[in-house]
Amino acid sequence: MSKYVLPLLVMLLALVPVLVARATVVEVEVPIPAGTATEDVRNKVFQFALEKLIKTDMQRMNLDVSAYEKAFEDKFARWFEVIEKRRREELTAAGTIGEAQTPLIEIEREKSKNVFAARSGLIKKYAIKKFAAHPEKLDTWEMSLDGEVDERLLTVHVQRMLQGGDKAFRRLWILTTVRPVNFGWEDLKLARQEDFSAPIEKEWLKWFQENTPDDVEDVAICDEPCQKILEKWNAQDEKSMAKFLAPEFLGGLLLNVNITLDREVLNGTVLETRVNYGGGLILQDLNTKRVLHWADLPRETQTLRQTEPKLFNSAVASHCYRFVLPKFLEVKNQVGKSVSLTNSMTVRLVNATHMGQALRLIDWIREKAAPMQAQGKLDSFNRKETRVLIFFRGEGNKFKSLVSGVKELESEWGPLTIDDSGADLVITLTPKS
Questions:
Q1: For residue 126, which of 77, 147, 330, 377 is within the disulfide window of CB 3.0 to 4.6 Å?
Q2: 38 secondary structure, DSSP code
Q3: What is the per-residue DSSP string for 150-175?
Q4: What are the residue ranges of helices labelled H in 212-354?
Q5: What is the pTM of this model?
Q6: At 306, is the secondary structure helix, strand, or coil?
Q7: Which residues lie below 8 Å from residue 304, measured CB to CB, with a gap of 6+?
Q8: Band (15; pLDDT cuts 50, 70, 90)
């Protein structure tokens, strides 16, 4: 760097007004039923405080709080319909019926509302100054919260909430896996992968927040709580996803970014290291496990001098950040071509004589159930019974009603019968003698 550049930068920075961080302090009193677990008490009171802090800053920023609250409640109500339906089915199957479901549904509603609001993602930093039982009011807890909102993200969040209509996808989660080859994290003076990947994910998150796909409400890093839910999600198969209950994932997308680092120490007068980069990424619909997009990352090589570990790690991390970005543009474009399908059903085709009939059925359903954005895939095939898995938006009974028109195919297949009384839709062809 020229000896004149640094003084010039200092002079320019001196001309820039210093932006003082705006911290807001709020205090809340929240009634909590006796017997509530301590951790649940803390979470509930914290959410109340967080909501008050955000709305206080919305008023300071001249954002319309009442319009936001109405839009929020309208969008949340539509989003919660699927969760409530699944929860009621789950409770009914467990023997809890009628009014006995009401308090459990209300608990689910409160939890889901906090998930939908995603308030913590709008806060840069916070400190709980006080959390204690009220000294005079029974079953009431107090909290004093000191926090700083991200004004840019809050403004974007409010604008999106006020926009008419719902986004196709609620959230895009980013999950990063970095796999070292020929070395371990301890060789880079790191304890675990997260020490290396967390700063990269933070920059990727910033990139996606500035380049959010039009059909996505918000973007988040798949942190430890998210990964615990992901373990349960991974345990499901595609056919059981219609019953999977996780508000955090409903209407969401998962972007798996997998990077491999192959390190080779070079012999020479100057100690150097060659790092080979590779990997790939996969975009999945969390509602159905459908793979919407996948791509290999380009094979790239970087030669670096062996320097102080922090500088070396920073150089490798910077390369990881940059060489994935072109693929993120592909992901953004793909999201715009995709739809969120919140329901699924198995269609069983009995006595099919060849696979072409199953493929014909999938095409026919896609055409007839287009208003429900139906898409299908072959799950299994044999002449006795073929299973087709169909993903769609909307109610299962409405889907069955649309697909009952399959008798149109009798001109091609001969007589057939339809049974829609069970969970699956069964289409039986008359076996040829």
A1: 147
A2: H
A3: -HHHHHHHHHHHHSSS--SEEEEEEE
A4: 224-234, 309-335
A5: 0.76
A6: coil
A7: 272, 273, 274, 275, 312, 315, 316
A8: very low
